[in-house]
Amino acid sequence: MKHDAIIVGGGFAGLAAATYLARARRSVCVIDTGQPRNRFATASHGFLGFDGSRPQAILARARDQLSAYPGVRMIDAEAVAARSSEDGFSVSLSSGEEISARKAVLAFGLRDMLEPIPGLGERWGRTVLHCPYCHGFEFADRRLGVLYRTPMSAHQARLIAEWGPTTLYLNGAGLDPESAATLAEQGVEVEPGKVRRLVGEHEALSAIELEDGRTSPVEALYVAPQSCLSSPIAEQLGVVIDEGLMGPVIRTDADKMTNVPGLYAAGDIARAPHSVSWAVADGVTAGTSAHRALVFG
Ligand SMILES: Cc1cc2nc3c(=O)[nH]c(=O)nc-3n(C[C@H](O)[C@H](O)[C@H](O)COP(=O)(O)OP(=O)(O)OC[C@H]3O[C@@H](n4cnc5c(N)ncnc54)[C@H](O)[C@@H]3O)c2cc1C
C-alpha cells in the first residue's frame, strides 16, 4: 500500500506533522524508535500547557490522540534506508519491510555527542544541562558552571549568569582578553584548570574536580555539545545539509521543504535553536505543506 505521507521519526516534530496530515484525512505512516532527544530529562519545560511534564508522557499522549484518526499507521521500528522514486519515496525498515508514500517528512532528531569527562554523561538532562530556558529556573541562584567548548562558551556563560553566580570552566582552553574583560565586568568567574571529573551524590552535582586536585563547588553545569543527525537517511536522499554552530542543519524553505521536491524536514534536524515548541511548530508547517502539495501537485 502506498501512503500519502511517511514520517521518519515520531517525536515532537514528527507527531505534529502526522496529526495535521491525519486531520486532513490523509493516510500517514509514522516510523519511530522512541528515543526523543530530551528523554534524559525528568521534566520538559516551556511547552505551553505541558510545563513540567515528563517528555515521554507528552509524546505518549500525542501518540494516543494521533492513533485514533483513521488512516494512521504507527510502526515501532528503525528506518534504515530511503530512496526517492518517480512518484514519491520508499523507506526500508530494520524488519525488512518497505514503506512507500507520495510525500515524506524527515523528523528523526539529533544525537548529542557529550564530552568524555567522567561523571558528565550520567548527569545529562539532570544537573548537566544544555539550555537555561528549559532548565535554568529550577537551578536559579545556585552555583552554576559553563564548560568551555568553543569561543561561544564565553557568550553562553554571560547568559547563564542571568540565573545565578556563574563560573566558566576553561578546561585548559585559552580566553581572549576582550571576553575575559566582559566576563569580569559581569561577575562571571573563570577557572582555567583542566577538568578531571564531576562529583556529587547520584545525579546531583556538588563540585568539579580539577586535574591539579582542587575542587570547585557547582550545582548545575551547562554544556553545549556538538550534535549529529540521528540517521543517514537525509544524506541518502540527497538533501542539502549546512554546518551550524552546534551541528548539522538540513536546509529547508519557509514550507519546511528540502531541496528534494516532496521531501520535508522538521524539528531539531532542520533548525537552530531547538525546543519542543519550535519542533512542534515546524512539524505543523511540514505537515500542512505536504498536504497542500498532495492537493495542488
Ligand atoms: C537533555 C535535554 C533536555 C531538553 N529539555 C527541553 C525542555 O525542557 N524543553 C524544551 O522545549 N526542549 C527541551 N529539549 C530540546 C528538545 O528535546 C528538542 O528540541 C526536541 O526533542 C526536538 O524534537 P524533534 O521531534 O525534532 O526530535 P526528537 O524529539 O529527538 O524525536 C526524534 C524521534 O525520531 C526517532 N528516530 C531517530 N532515528 C530514527 C530512525 N532512523 N527511524 C525511526 N525513528 C527514528 C527517535 O527515536 C525520536 O523518537 C531538551 C533537549 C535535551 C538534550
Q: Could you characterize what this model shows?
A:
- With 297 residues, the protein is an alpha/beta fold.
- The chain has 2 domains: 2-112 and 227-296, 3-Layer(bba) Sandwich (FAD/NAD(P)-binding domain); 115-222, FAD/NAD(P)-binding domain.
- Helix content is 24%, strand content 28%.
- It is built from 7 helices and 19 strands.
- The chain has helices at residues 12-23, 55-67, 132-135, 152-160, 177-185, 233-236, 276-296; strands at 2-8, 28-32, 72-76, 79-85, 88-93, 98-106, 110-113, 128-129, 144-147, 166-169, 189-191, 195-199, 207-210, 215-217, 220-222, 226-229, 241-243, 248-250, 263-265.
- Strands 1, 2, 3, 4, 5, 6 and 19 form a 7-stranded mixed beta sheet that branches. The chain has a 5-stranded parallel beta sheet with strand order 8-15-9-10-11, covered by helices on one side. Strands 12-13-14 form a 3-stranded antiparallel beta sheet, with no helix packed on it.
- α5 (177-185) links the parallel β10 and β11 (189-191).
- α1 (12-23) packs parallel to α2 (55-67), α1 runs parallel beside α7 (276-296) and α4 packs parallel to α5.
- The longest helix is centred in the C-terminal third of the chain and has 21 residues, at 276-296.
- The protein starts with a strand and ends with a helix.
